[in-house]
Amino acid sequence: MSSSIPRTAKRIAIVMVAVGTVLGASGCTGNDPENNSPAGSKSAPKKAGSNNDAAGKKVTIGFSGPAADHGWLGAINKAAKDAAKKYPDVELKVAEGTNDASLQISQIETFINDKVDAIVLLPTDGAALTEVATKAMNAGIPVINVDREFSNPFAARTTILGDNYGMGVSAGTYACQLVKQKKLSNPVIAEIAGIDSLPLTQDRSKGFKDALKKCGQRVDNRVSAEFTVESGEKQASNLVQAAPKIDILWNHDDDQGVGVMAALDQANRHEMAFIGGAGSANAMRLIKEGKMEATVLYPPTQAADGIKVARLIAQGKGISDLAQVEVPRRIVLNAPVVTKKNVDQYLPLAFES
Question: Is the keyword Heme assigned to this protein (predicted)?
Answer without folding.
Answer: no
